Every structure is written in structure tokens, then in C-alpha cells.
Amino acid sequence: MPLSSSFLFFFFFFLLLLLHFSPTRPESEPETLRLKLIRRAQDPTLTRLDRIRGLVHNDRLRRHRAAASPAPSPPGAFEMPVRSGAYAGTGQYFVRVRVGTPAQRFLLVADTGSDLTWVKCSYGSRKCGKKKCGSDPDAERVFRADRSRTFHPISCGSDLCRNDLPFSLTTCPTPASPCDYDYGYFDGSSTQGFYANESVTIALSDGHKKRKLKGLLLGCTSSSSGPSFDSSDGVLGLGHSDISFASHATAQFGGRFSYCLVDHLSPKNATSYLTFGPNRMFRAAPAVQETDLLITPKLDPYYGAAVIGLSVDGEVLRIPPSVWNVGKGGGAILDSGSSLTMLAEPAYRVVVSALSRRLVGIPEVKEDPFEYCYNWTRVGNITVPKLAVHFAGRAQLDPPVKSYLIDVAAGVKCLGFTSVAWPSVSTIGNIMQQEHLWEFDIQNRRLRFQRSTCTTT
């Protein structure tokens, strides 16, 4: 039976009303990857000063280098919990990572100054025992690569091994043999193993979904030496490089990553997050600081910050502009793997002089390797000078006093800076970065930061 024209008219009129007044569904927010930042339990054999001395030694010597290209995917996000490792005698922050299929859990150093991601690993005839890989009782088991269905060694006969992978060795018994590496660090530490492709399991931002982050370049380390890795199972490379975990993850999750570092002396259960993709903590921020993120081969694998100067109590310090000029051998980087802030000598001398002048009258003490230390046991109501770091674009970092006047022993505080010979790049270490949320927007080359308790509540 044919429909009448009046019926058709009212039918389409009613349909248009529904379309007009139906609420539009908001676009779903991108998922987020967060990694928890993990802190180690205290080593009772170490005094606070012993720990600080170890941090200074490692910071001065660390400057490592190392260089697969992930295919871009739709943006999303995920998070990993992170904690401080200060009480293990290390100034680094750790993150738990689930590697392989089925997944095995490991504790890795979260390091923006390193590009190679590796784990202590056993594969075939290449065993990794306690003698080779360390015997920290808190460290997780070595990665049993034979048990992972997604572990695929890269052959030494491949173009990737011969041309693109840093620190790869020229030895190649057969074209199908694994691509070996010998990755050295400037503190004398080293790690030997071979390259492979592997997957890690990530939990997306809704807290329920899990997925595999595939095609990660992973170092299977069968032997390592030196103090850098005693408290961890390996390194999560967050530096700027085609092979780093950060580059692989940001290519699939919004082109950016962020982290918030809890106080390095905070309680054992204090955790924060390493996030890939949009970070929901920024949305609640009343005032987010923003400046240029400097990405250049001269700084790789580090991320440069566009520092233009420092001030103390509002007085801009007279530091030569060349100190912050990358083209003239200077500049400043943010390094989550270094603890103290290291300043090129022309800046160091001006900064410690300006701070120490305002602390005259407080008894000085000697605590190697620091130049300015104070007996704080009988200090009354004193106004500590306020340090500020100024960036291009009027961004300003106002660190808490404890980030530059640090506790090194009972009743002793020191100016927490070390110097590096000029010309050299200055380093903003993780103690100076603590209790701030930092976002590295690689896609747009922007650095954002804000003061934060580093908790989501």
C-alpha cells in the first residue's frame, strides 16, 4: 500500500526534530599510558653523605650516547608508575616494565639521557647469571628471552645492524647470527649483548585496557659491569633517538611524554607516573609554564631547555649569554638520570657566589665534594634566598629550596650544584626537577612544566 504524502511529510519532520535536539556525543578522550615511578628501599649501610657523594661521582661521569623507526599509529596514551631510588644509594628513578609474551616484569632506570632500552637477559647459550648481571636481592629475575613468543633477534647480516644500530660490533660469524653490541658509559659502566625486536605490555589510561607495544628495539644484555645498574634490571631509554623507547611510544601516543618526580627523599610508597600521550594532570593546572624544547644533533640524545638566565631573590645574575647558547658549546639539558644540577663554570661561579653571600653568618662546614655547606643545627628563623631559572617565552622555574639547598647529612645542608668545565652543556638534574610535572612535546618541540605534588588526587 503506497504511503500518503502527508505521512511522509510528518515522518521526515519528526526525524529532523530528533536529529536537531539529540545531544551530540563528545569525542572520546585519547587513551593515556602512565608508568609508575618507583623508589627503592633504604640501604642501611649507606649514610646520606655517602649517597650524595655517589650521586656527584655518577653525575660528573655520565654522558652516554647511543641510535629502527616505528610506524605511526592513532594517538592515545598510557601511564607507568615511577619511584625514586635514592635510598638504594642511587639518584635515579625506576619504572616497572612488562617485557615479552607472556610478560615478565622488570625494574628499569627511567633515563632521558639514554636511548638504548635493555634488560639483563638470558637467551640460548647466552646466560646471564648473578655474577654477570648483578645480585641485588630487590632486582627482578633476568629476562628469559627463550620463553617469549614475541622475541626476535636482529641478525648481524642485516642492513639495520650494519648501518643503523649504534655500538653494534663488526663480528658476524654467520649472516643469521645476532647483532651484538658493546654499549659503554662514561662512568666506566658497560653492557654487552645483542639487539632484538620485542613487545612490552602497557595499561591504557582507563585502567582496564591492555595492549602490546610492538616492535620495540631491545637490548638483550648478557653481561654488564659498573655501579650504574646494581639496583636495576636495565634501562628504559627515554632520550631523543630513533631507537629509544620514548621515540617508539610517542610515535603511537600523541607525540609527547611527561613525568612527575616525587621528592627524592619521600616515603617508600610515594609514586608518580611516566605518561605517554595527553597527561590529565595538566588540564587541572591554573598556570602551566611553556618554552622551547631544543632538539638538535648537537644535544642528542638529550633534550635541551631554552634557558636564558638565572636569578636570586629577583636579581638577574650576570652570566655570559654564551653559557646558554648551544651553537657556542653551551646550552642546558634536562636529565632524569642525573641527580644534581651541573652548571658550566661561568654560571656555577656566579650562582654559588650569589647564594652563599645571602647565607653569611651560618657556620660553614666541609663536606666533600661540595664547595658550600652549612651547619644547620642551630639556624633560627632565616630567609633562604630564592632561586629562579628563566626560560625563553617568559617561563620561569621556581624550585623549592630543598632542590638547591639539599640535605647531605644530619644537620648539614649544601648548595646542590657541581661545576663542569667551560665550554660545556649545563644539566638540570632530577633533584631540581622534583615536585614538578614536565611534558616533552616532541611533535611540537615544546617543553611544559608546572608545580605539582605528583599525585593524581
UniProtKB/TrEMBL annotation:
Signal peptide: 1-26
Keyword Hydrolase (UniProt): yes
Transmembrane segments: none
Key words of the record: Aspartyl protease, Glycoprotein, Hydrolase, Protease, Signal
InterPro entries recorded: Aspartic_peptidase_A1 (IPR001461), Aspartic_peptidase_AS (IPR001969), Pepsin-like_plant (IPR034161), PEPTIDASE_A1 (IPR033121), Peptidase_aspartic_dom_sf (IPR021109), Plant_Aspart_Prot_A1 (IPR051708), TAXi_C (IPR032799), TAXi_N (IPR032861)
Keyword Glycoprotein found: yes
GO biological process: proteolysis
Active site annotation, chain numbering: 111, 335
GO molecular function, one term: aspartic-type endopeptidase activity
Organism superkingdom: Eukaryota
Matches recorded under Pfam families: TAXi_C (PF14541), TAXi_N (PF14543)
Domain Peptidase A1 residues, every copy: 93-450
Family of the protein in this entry: Belongs to the peptidase A1 family.
Protein name as it appears in the record: Peptidase A1 domain-containing protein
Species this chain originates from: Iris pallida (Sweet iris)
